[in-house]
Design a protein that fits this description.
By secondary structure, this protein is mainly alpha-helical. It contains eight helices and no strands. The chain is globular, with a radius of gyration of 16 Å.
Length: 152
C-alpha cells in the first residue's frame, strides 16, 4: 500500500457510479429472465473478482452467495472449477465464458470458447453471462482503483 490517499471515484463522480449500479440491476433482471440460477450469478461475480484480484468484491459476493445458500465447498474450489465435480454443464459453460471475457487481454474470446458456451447456453444466457462479466469487471476496476477498504 502507499501513503497516497486514493480518490473514491464512485463518490467523486456519483452519476456514473449510479448508472453502473442501475446497469447491474438490469443485468440481474436479464440473467433471471434467461433462467440463470442466482447462485451461479454470484459465482460468476466471485470468479471475475478472483481473476482481477478485487478483495472488496470478493468479500461482498462471497457473502451474498452464502446468504443465498451457496455451498461453501463450491466457493472454495472455484479457482479450480474445471478439476471438480461440483459444477453442472451450464455452470461450466458460464464460468468458461466469464473467464474468457475477463481475460480478454490474453487473447480475446476465442471461437472455441464461445462455441463451447453456445453448445450449452441459450442466446439469452450467453448475453446475460457476457453482461454479468462486463459489469463485474467494471465494478472490480472501480473498487481496485479507489482501493476500497477490506478488513484490518
Amino acid at each position: 500500500m502507499t501513503d497516497t490517499q486514493r480518490v473514491n471515484i464512485g463518490k467523486q463522480h456519483p452519476a456514473p457510479y449510479k448508472t453502473l449500479i442501475a446497469l447491474s440491476s438490469q443485468v440481474d433482471e436479464a440473467a433471471a429472465a434467461a433462467g440463470l440460477d442466482p447462485l451461479l450469478v454470484e459465482l460468476l461475480r466471485i470468479r471475475t473478482s478472483q481473476i482481477n484480484g478485487c478483495a472488496f468484491c470478493l468479500r461482498t459476493h462471497t457473502g451474498d452467495a452464502l446468504k443465498k445458500g451457496e455451498n461453501p465447498d463450491r466457493i472454495a474450489v472455484l479457482p479450480a472449477w474445471e478439476e471438480t465435480g461440483y459444477f453442472s454443464e451450464t455452470d461450466r459453460a458460464a464460468l468458461r465464458l466469464t473467464e474468457a471475457i475477463t481475460l480478454v487481454p490474453d487473447g480475446h474470446v476465442s471461437d472455441e470458447e464461445y462455441n463451447a458456451a453456445a453448445a450449452v447456453l441459450t442466446a439469452d444466457q450467453i448475453s446475460a453471462v457476457a453482461w454479468l462479466a462486463t459489469v463485474m469487471n467494471a465494478f472490480n476496476r472501480v473498487a481496485i482503483t479507489s482501493r476500497y477498504p477490506v478488513g484490518g
